[in-house]
Amino acid sequence: MQTIEQLLESKDIRVTAMRLLIYKFLAQKQIAVTLSDIENAFEKADRTTLYRTVKTFEEKGIAHQIDDGTGITKYALCEEGCSCEIETDLHLHFHCNICNETICLTEHKIPQIKVPEGFVSENVNLVVKGICDKCSGH
Amino acid sequence: MQTIEQLLESKDIRVTAMRLLIYKFLAQKQIAVTLSDIENAFEKADRTTLYRTVKTFEEKGIAHQIDDGTGITKYALCEEGCSCEIETDLHLHFHCNICNETICLTEHKIPQIKVPEGFVSENVNLVVKGICDKCSGH
DNA sequence: TCATTAAATGCACTTCCATTGCATTTCATT
DNA sequence: AATGAAATGCAATGGAAGTGCATTTAATGA
Ligand SMILES: [Mn+2]
Ligand SMILES: [Mn+2]
Ligand SMILES: [Zn+2]
Ligand SMILES: [Zn+2]
Question: Which fold, B4-136?
Fold first, then answer.
């Protein structure tokens, strides 16, 4: 078990107070968050810093961006050993039409999608919309 | 075989010169188009008119919107007998990372996606990214 | 045909989010 | 402590979606 500091350093991300706070915020959230969500959680910090921080996390491979179709980009930490870039590792995302929350279904890998002759599949984005467990009354 | 005028009227869309032109433009294109694409094709027309026209087409069920992850909304005419609203009818979309074009793979229906207990699936958006047949040299 | 009326169009403006340039501050290293 | 590079903060930009309202167009009936 490594500390967050060690994790960041192992990914070549310089450790700063802000980055630790943002990492912890993302880790504590069970849902994908927007930049505004982060902004609201850290009112003292500048929006640009938060923006560039999640971008850095993304580039260094400890977070991934989610396009759930709402038009607003969301972010979530990668799971242990996640490699978002590799197609076979891609999990699906669920967007709840009621509470408007989006979560990673990391257990649910995307099935192999057949494409026509001549087409090469490199990447797949799959978003399921509906009602989440909390909103459906399980 | 019905004329475009008859099709529009059957869908409760008033026939105008502009709408006929835009419909023909969409029909001729084999790929999904952005509002800017339409704008460039009809420089004399106002952007708002084009915007509201495709919105009308969408609401009346003769076109559908595509979110291919580029951040720019695209539109395409529905196939004969298409009913985009019904989940089981949803087809997948392919976005080429090289030519940047997005096409409807209307033959390729989206497979049934399993979601965890308590979750209800109402809608699915599936976008495959990669290299299209034209760009791969088939 | 002409008047009436509703819908379609055009123009201006707004909003929202993503993104960048640059000055300043912080931090690691010597 | 001095240096340089990276991180941060502030201001501004850009792109696309969406809206309010005045004007034009087109369908309808007198
Ligand atoms: Mn995820
Ligand atoms: Mn389509
Ligand atoms: Zn919910
Ligand atoms: Zn291509």
Answer: Arc Repressor Mutant, subunit A (1.10.10)
Q: How confident is the model at residue B103 (pLDDT cuts 50, 70, 90)?
A: very high
List residues, Cβ < 7 Å, touching strand D. A 13-14, 16-19, 44-46, 48-49, 52-53, 56, 71; B 14-17, 34-36, 47-48, 51-52, 71-73
Q: Could you tell me the pTM of the whole model? A: 0.90
Cα of A63 to ligand 2 centre, how many Å?
Answer: 30
The owner of tokens 């529905």 is B78
Contacts of B127 in chain A (CB under 8 A): 124-126
Give the pLDDT score at B51.
98
Whether residue B103 contacts residue B93, with contact meaning beta carbons closer than 8 Å, is answered with: yes
Q: For A94, phi and psi rounded to 5 degrees?
A: -120, 130
> What is the 3-class SS of B94-127, one letter each residue?
EEECCCCCEEEEEEEECCCCCCCCCCEEEEEEEE
Quote the pLDDT of residue A73.
96
